[in-house]
Amino acid sequence: MNLLSVEHLNVNFHFKKRELAALIDVSFTLKRGERIAIVGESGAGKSILGFSIVNLISKPGYIHSGAIKLENKDITSMNLRQLQEIRGKRIAMIFQDPMMTLNPVITIGDQLVETIRSHTKINYKDARNIAIEKLRNVQIASPERRFDQYPHELSGGMRQRVIIASVLLLNPDIIIADEPTTALDVTIQAEILQLLLAICRDNGVALVLISHDLGVVSKVAERTLVMYAGQIVEEGPTLEIINDPQHPYTQGLLNALPQMALPGQRLNQIKGSMPSLAERPNGCAFHPRCPYATDKCRSEQPEFIYSGVSSVACFMVEDMLDEFNQHDEGLV
Ligand code: SF4
Ligand code: MG
């Protein structure tokens, strides 16, 4: 059974008497212990999808239709008490800025102790020992000293480690990490990702890693979903997607990666920008930026099809498959 299944999810924003689509027909599944990535430029709807999973979309946004099932229980129809049971304990979130979660006027040790004691009846001393152990697990040196420090006394990377420690205290089944390393130095980024990977693997925790960087996710996620303008445009095993991207948008994201460029070569940024919710183009939303766009792309929406490598929504891929099949039939 899937741990999580998102089924035909549509999220709208009700804005100035208009209904704007922020997520369109998004479907995917997550198995226990699996690690997936959601990738796309900013404005693609990645964070909205992350928040939707824990039903935390705030006004003027709302879940218009579809289902989000955590082991067959639909999160979209849960009441506040049921949702609070799930948030943190079953599905935990990590954000780009740890200060969104940490309280600046309480020592990190006391914040961890508070989390422990809000869910179990143990005394301060035992909770302190657990907290110090967790800080050690996320590779924080001299945890006894760090325990008494305030968030501002720690580096950004160390604060993110504290967040990972606090998330782990509740033994979640799923961690949703939204650009968890974007604000950090490149070397620290790699360390935090490695830590996240190890923690998820060792504890059987499923991970949804949200990132604008295909290079970052390639080291962590087994499966990747590429989002553009509120839709999933390509989905498949991460390695396949990196080695043989099918959708022109995925190809563009890869070409823009510094590590993909040859020495001395300029980076190929995708021309144009992500459309705003209010200016979503007709047909395939990527058509104004796509080098292969045809008239059909400007008026019709491509369906999701399996290309043999990944699942992809693109007429060009569809046409190539048709041609290939015709050729195949001709041979028989
Ligand atoms: Fe480009 Fe057309 Fe494919 Fe959209 S459907 S990505 S516009 S070729
Ligand atoms: Mg975001």
TrEMBL record:
SUPFAM superfamilies attached here?
A: P-loop containing nucleoside triphosphate hydrolases (SSF52540)
This protein's UniProt keywords: ATP-binding, Cell membrane, Membrane, Nucleotide-binding, Transport
Q: What domain of life does the UniProt record list for this protein's source? A: Bacteria
Q: Where is the ABC transporter domain?
A: 6-254
Q: Which residues form a coiled coil?
A: none
Q: Which reaction does it catalyse?
A: a dipeptide(out) + ATP + H2O = a dipeptide(in) + ADP + phosphate + H(+)
**PROSITE patterns in the cross-refs:** ABC_TRANSPORTER_1, ABC_TRANSPORTER_2
InterPro entries the record matches: AAA+_ATPase, ABC_Ni/Peptide_Import, ABC_transporter-like_ATP-bd, ABC_transporter-like_CS, Oligopep_ABC_C, P-loop_NTPase
Q: Does the keyword Transport apply?
A: yes
Q: Where does the record say this protein resides? A: Cell inner membrane
Biological process terms in GO annotation: peptide transport; transmembrane transport
Where is it found, in Gene Ontology cellular component terms? plasma membrane
UniProt membrane topology term: Peripheral membrane protein
Any one Pfam family match given in the protein's UniProt record, by short name: ABC_tran
The Enzyme Commission number assigned here is: 7.4.2.9
One MF term from GO for this chain?
ATP binding
UniProt family annotation: Belongs to the ABC transporter superfamily.
Q: Which NCBIfam families match?
A: oligo_HPY
Under what name is this protein listed?
A: ABC-type dipeptide transporter
Q: Which organism is it from?
A: Marinomonas posidonica (strain CECT 7376 / NCIMB 14433 / IVIA-Po-181)
